[in-house]
Write a structure and sequence with these properties.
The structure holds two protein chains of two kinds. Chain A is α/β, with parallel strands linked by helices. Helix content of chain A is about 35%, strand content about 15%. Chain A contains nine helices and nine strands. Chain B is of the alpha/beta class. Chain B is globular and about 70 Å long. Classes of the chains: A alpha/beta, B alpha/beta. β2 (about 65) of chain A pairs parallel with β7 of chain B.
Chain lengths: ~250, ~350
């Protein structure tokens, strides 16, 4: 029988530990597929974060070096400077990249460090139990924004990708989502483009991925995807925020 | 040559091609020297980071890639680097971290001080770990110890701290620099992250969720620390053979103390100096050995009394320990120290 679908060889056979309906498994798979298709498994190094995806090195069959919370962009800077011909990516959640690691991220982008960041945005601190994140939207209930996030008490969320798009050294910034098969395919294309941008030495590339967290959102997986489309992506608009490659404005 | 420049040049001669730092007085000449020098060396990388926190994590990234890498700072900046130093220890990554320490706590001042002894020797960050801590007392030792620091870091896959101070960093002395190692001659590393070409993929991590595995990791680190303790203790003993009183001091304080002892010896007082060169591992055996012949010890530090605790632990209750400390960035003269020693010497009827 002809094999039409299989596990990407850049992923190990270890089953994911992620909750049902979580976006991490999808994003892992997409990155694995792109690494396979670009044939870069033996020269790609990943930097997993603190957070739900900290165990990514059990899933990706590539070299991986763990960063502490928020420091992936600094670690990637040191690593890429030492290994300029390898493809280096960081994989970070919203708390990691947009709260504790804001300085490292903005400066890496501003310097134009030539690595790629996958920024998985689910609006909560998932691993620690669903606390308010820098990307929790106004009105969203979390364990540390009871009754919903209020500007007067909790302040406004941060649109990090838009800020990074302003930075001189960023080359490609796109926001996608995992809410539907169509959006998942767009995400895969964005991943491939981000790697291409890095291979061409153009500077900092980042794909922000709006991702469901049914467990901490206290929703069914289908409801969570609908919430991304109907609510979350109204605050975090999908699309290409920056592209210096001169390709068609929308990569898709 | 200026102390801070000596550190930079010796690092490059030891094969360091990566430097990540952030300005802070009194060590600014190190990043300045590295910026200039690394721009002219093949494969040299200098990044002035956005913070001390970022710079130590850049060090981690380069170290994972197998590079010889250094960062430097002073007290307040070293506090910020503690997160990364804890990670370097847990991840078993080699790196050299220079602290040209200054008066503290808080912003303190920019004058020389030894108040970061506890921070350096106890680990400094979170978790159960130790740093190798080297305490130079001259330009020549800055050269030799910086050079050796890279070898020790690679040999044990652990961070090495060079604990200097503002005076050592700023002072100019003639120095014989170590020979330059060609990068290709450096010992190969079989654990680095370089992309899994022709080998299985690797990962380097410090999160070990299983308590028994984490316990085993801690035991592994401990066994390494025991090997270091057994093999890497360094010290200088000066005029201790006939001494009736032994002064114990490290770094620049020991340099001052030596001047004091030379002066006192001219007056016939039998005083010797023991100078720990490695602050961790601490030369506790040699200090204990002294108690066979000597009962009285003075510990002199440019702080409120930190190494004195290690001296007391080493003596295990044998011998009397007197402490003389000058915190805040004050540099006492050999004459002042000589007066303290002399007065104690006669008070204890040692001569």
């Amino acid at each position: 029988m002809k094999k039409v679908f299989s596990r990407p060889k850049s992923l190990k056979t270890t089953p994911f530990h992620y909750c049902p309906g979580c976006g991490h498994s999808i994003l892992h798979r997409l990155i694995g597929e792109v690494i396979d298709e670009m044939n870069i498994q033996d020269r790609t190094i990943g930097i997993p974060p603190a957070g739900c995806a900290v165990l990514a090195y059990f899933y990706f069959d590539i070299d991986m070096g763990e960063a502490s919370h928020g420091r992936a962009a600094a670690l990637a800077t040191g690593m890429k400077r030492a290994l300029p011909d390898r493809i280096i990516f960081t994989y970070q959640g919203d708390g990691d990249i947009a709260a504790i690691g804001t300085a490292e991220t903005i400066h890496a982008a501003a310097r134009g460090e030539n690595f790629t960041t996958f920024f998985i945005n689910n609006g909560v601190y998932g691993m620690t139990g669903g606390q308010m994140a820098p990307t929790t939207i106004i009105g969203q209930v979390t364990t540390t924004s009871p009754g919903g996030r209020m500007v007067s008490r909790d302040g406004n969320p941060i649109n990090l990708s838009e800020m990074l798009a302003v930075a001189k050294g960023s080359a490609y910034i796109e926001r996608t989502s995992l809410s539907s098969p169509a959006n998942i395919l767009k995400t895969k294309k964005a991943i491939a483009k981000a790697f291409r941008v890095q291979m061409e030495g153009r500077g900092f590339s980042l794909v922000e991925v709006l991702s469901p967290c049914p467990t901490n959102w206290k929703m069914e997986p289908v409801e969570a995807c609908r919430w991304i489309d109907e609510v979350m992506s109204k605050h975090f608009l999908l699309g290409v925020l920056k592209d210096v490659t001169g390709d068609r404005k929308d990569a898709h | 040559m200026r102390g801070n420049h000596i550190v930079g040049e010796s690092a490059i001669r030891a094969g360091c091609r990566f430097y990540f730092g952030y300005p802070i007085t009194p060590q600014n000449e190190i990043p300045e020297y590295m910026a200039e020098r690394l721009s002219k060396v093949e494969g040299g990388v200098f990044v002035q980071a956005e913070s001390e926190v970022a710079s130590i994590h850049m060090v981690i990234g380069a170290s994972m890639a197998g590079a010889r890498v250094m960062t430097s700072s002073s007290g307040p900046g070293i506090s910020l680097k503690q997160e990364g130093i804890s990670f370097l220890s847990a991840l078993e990554l080699p790196a050299v971290i220079v602290n040209m320490s200054r008066g503290g706590p808080g912003l303190g001042n920019i004058a020389p001080s030894q108040s970061d002894y506890f921070q350096a020797t106890r680990g400094g960050g979170h978790g159960d770990y130790r740093n190798i801590v080297l305490a130079p007392n001259s330009g020549q030792e800055l050269a030799d110890l910086t050079y050796n620091a890279f070898n020790l870091a690679d040999k044990y896959r652990t961070p090495v701290i060079i604990l200097g101070d503002g005076m050592l960093g700023q002072m100019m002395e003639p120095v014989e620099l170590p020979p330059e190692i060609p990068i290709k001659k450096l010992p190969p590393k079989d654990w680095t992250l370089t992309g899994a070409k022709g080998r299985p993929s690797r990962f380097i991590r410090s999160l070990i969720l299983d308590p028994f595995e984490e316990e085993e990791h801690n035991w592994k680190l401990m066994r390494k620390y025991e090997r270091i303790t057994k093999d890497e203790v360094r010290y200088e003993a000066y005029l201790t053979e006939d001494a009736r009183l032994i002064l114990i001091a490290f770094g620049i304080a020991a340099r001052i103390a030596k001047g004091a002892i030379k002066r006192i010896r001219e007056e016939g007082l039998k005083v010797g100096l023991l100078r720990p060169i490695t602050l961790w591992p601490f030369p506790n055996k040699i200090i204990k050995e002294f108690t066979k012949k000597v009962r009285h010890f003075i510990v002199f530090e440019m702080n409120m009394g930190q190494m004195v605790e290690d001296v007391k632990l080493s003596l295990e209750g044998m011998g009397e320990v007197h402490f003389y400390g000058r915190p805040g960035g004050v540099i006492p003269t050999p004459l002042e120290v000589a007066r303290v020693i002399t007065s104690y010497y006669y008070q204890k009827r040692l001569g």
